[in-house]
Amino acid sequence: MVQAGDKAAKPSAIVCAKDGPAQEVLAARELRRYWYLRTGDLLPIVPTMEQQASGGGFVVGRKDRAMLRGMDGTPAWNATLAGLGPQQYLLRTIERGGNRWLVIVGGDDVGTLYGAYRVAEQIGVRFYLHGDVIPDERMRAELPNLDEPGKPLFALRGIQPFNNFPFGPDWWTTEDYKATISQLAKMRMNFIGFHCYPEYFGQCLAEPTVWTGMKDGFDDQGRVRVGYPTRQSHTMENPAQGGFAVPMKTSDYRFGAAMLFDRDDAGSEAMAAGSSQSTPVDRQNAVFNHCGTMYREAFGFARVMGVKTCIGTEVPSQKQAGVWPTAVLEQLKAQKKDPADPAVVREIYEAMFQRIMKTHPLDYYWLWTCESWRGKNTPEETKEVVGHINAAHEAIQRVGAPFRLATSGWVLGPQEDRTAYDRLLPKDIAVSSINPELGHNPVEPAYARIQGREKWAIPWMEDDMALADPQLWVGRTRKDAADALAYGCTGLFGIHWRTQVIAPNFAALAQAGWSQTPWNPEPGKVRETRTLGTADFYADWARSNFGSEVAGEVAAIYEQKDGNLPRVAGGCPCGLNPDNRPWDQVAKEYGFVDALQQCRNKVKGAGNLDRFDYWLNSLYYLRATGHMECAIGRYNQAMTGAQAEKDLTKRKELAKTLVLPAYREVFQQYAEALGRLMQTTSSAGELATVAVWQQTYYPWVIENRAKDLTSALGEPLPADLQATQQYKGPPRLIVPTIRGTVVEGDKPPLRIIVLAGQPPQVARFHWRTMGTGEYAVADFQHVARGVYSINLPPISAAGIEYYIEATTGDGQRLVFPPTAPQLSQTVTCLSPSVRSER
């Protein structure tokens, strides 16, 4: 082991070939970044060990680099390197020339990058979809003593963010896509795939992730010129198309929530692009074209980061819900073409795939069976679906598409034989499915009987019956990963909408893609349990996020509540359940919130406290929602009793003495829950949750009851029960999207939200070259309400670090990150050559 005070153990450089490919060079730059953040030492990157005058350090390179040959002086070394396969890495600390070196070698370029991120984890950094966690306390600058090979258990590991609700990628910007993809690579994951709903017999519009049409429907750049009505979620959409209960301008939001948004039609970037067009045809085409541009940027970036991409929609069926868009069917009718003719089906797929090829990169296109297959399907429907998939397979070959085909759905295959696709489809088509019953059922056992093709299990990181609730599923995720491994699956993805509030679930999924020791002591064996142990996970998670002072107590609370949190939302995507039990009884179910609160004064460090408060407020929010449901139950009972009274005078008296106090409790708990939610709002998923509370919960919980109560009282409600638009909570500085990796020379936008009762006196951006010189200062530009924006300075090979400072109207100072300037936000860059690679 490295001894404290050993000068040879203090690294002095990072060695990486200057002419290396983008991922190898990025590996060195990322290692430099995280070593600096953990130790304060900013190491130079040099091309050879000989150029370093003294001291050891890190050596980063792909296995075929000449400088790595014979590195450790043992006969087995070169054979070990040669044996490294794609995505694999080796971390080994060796002695050479009196110096100590940590060698990070990859079986390929992305394996080298994974090795660097694994070293970052070994020195205390933790990666999540929403961003990095850097411990508050710096460590001694001593080289780790490692000997760790890395080999993934699944060839593909990643996520399946689900569109259709505002909580997920419907509300992602281009910057959100890129930020998420960067984090996937850090978590050593390499897949992101999107399901696209088709049109449902005119009841719900098709989504714009996939365009459907004929070959004359787009130009040479893939820009759609023959589109059709399409939608992604936004605050002004028609509820009949799957939106909020009440379309609403965000400027009309109550309790200060309007400050979180800069436009009235908040939500989908693509829908906003369409709304700026003057005609219906231009509007719908603009939505498709904006999505195409967004995916070109995002999927091109994914390719550079080693992340595979996938999109697709459901197989059209006249016997099921999803169909070709009405406009396409009308076009076929005008051309006297039969949409059921296999040649016509193939022609449509050819056009779809050619448009994708002209628009954005892609690795897989998947065809889903619709959700009704959860119940049953007929043999005729199976034949129809298989015919479509085979037509799509032929189309891919005819147009020379550079992507492959896959299947997916709510079930693996038809009810008569879940493995039927293995017999009926070519072997180069991957098969996949999301877990049955919203993830409450385990991975489909039929995967074990499918051989000789890619097969991807997709467990649920959260379910869409409770998207306004925190959800903890670490133990269940581990069980699903263990089953997927036992069944020989080659891919492991997590379906989800939100990111930060379910961060533990993602971390468990990512880890399970590389190692299942010690929590899966019998790999290959499927055990009759729905969860596997979580003690080791939460011990590490609590220590990394909140510090060692409270790690044990917090870990015990989360281990107990994993898979066992109270469920307050009910209905897809997030309804409410009036609870007729008295709150005094129900409150006992939330004792864990008080237990967590008691840990707060033991937390040390600004970053630890900020993260702790996020989770504490998330659970307070859950409790306040549960309290509100009890208050709703009490109100309903009181109102029913009052309405049953036939005497008008007595009815008014009951309304005043029983119903009004019950309503007051409902109103107060609504305000409490929303206030707690706004203390956690940090990303697109939480912004969408705020919108649900304004446009779905408020009309049902508050407005409807206020109207009934006013009628029962025969007079207006008291002034203190009127919702205000003023924000009265603690001020916050919010950065919804954090880019940590950009292309050299790029200047991506950085948006912030200052949530406060008054506009800030100042909002400033402080930046410098990483670890060097004084901070330069620039003012953010006001966009609207509480939203401000600036562009990052051009990022050079050295990277930058920055922090944000805002002063509220009443003089309070807000800083992001909370550890700045001692520990600021950092950005590294990819070589500008990757622009041509994309």
Pick out its properties.
16% strand, 4 domains, Chitobiase, domain 2, 838 residues, alpha/beta, disordered N terminus, TIM Barrel, 26 strands
Characterise this structure.
The longest helix is centred in the last third of the chain and has 39 residues, at 606-644. Helix 4 (174-186) runs parallel beside helix 6. It contains 20 helices and 26 strands. It is 36% helix and 16% strand. The radius of gyration is 28 Å and the shape is globular. The strands form 5 sheets. It has an 8-stranded parallel beta sheet, covered by helices on one side. The chain has a 6-stranded mixed beta sheet with strand order 2-1-3-5-4-8, covered by helices on one side. Strands 18, 20, 21, 24, 25 and 26 form a 6-stranded mixed beta sheet that branches. It has 838 residues and is an alpha/beta fold. It has 4 domains: 7-150, Chitobiase/beta-hexosaminidase domain 2-like (Chitobiase, domain 2); 156-233 and 268-533, TIM Barrel (Alpha-Beta Barrel); 565-721, no CATH class; 732-837, Immunoglobulins (Immunoglobulin-like, Sandwich).
In short:
By secondary structure, this protein is of the alpha/beta class.
CATH topology term of the largest domain: TIM Barrel
Number of E strands? 26
What is the gyration radius calculated from CA atoms? 28 Å
User: How would a crystallographer describe the biggest sheet?
Assistant: 8 strands, parallel
Q: What integer is the average pLDDT? A: 94
How many discrete domains? 4
CATH class categorisation of the largest domain: Alpha Beta
| Biggest sheet, spatial arrangement of strands | 13-12-11-10-9-16-15-14
Give the second-level CATH assignment, the architecture of the largest domain.
Alpha-Beta Barrel
Alpha-carbon distance between the termini?
Answer: 43 Å
Helix content estimate: 25-40%
Structural class, from secondary structure content? alpha/beta
Shape: globular
Total number of helices: 20
CATH evolutionary superfamily of the largest domain: Glycosidases
Q: How much of the residues is beta strand, in percent?
A: 15-25%
Runs with pLDDT <50, length 5+? 1-5
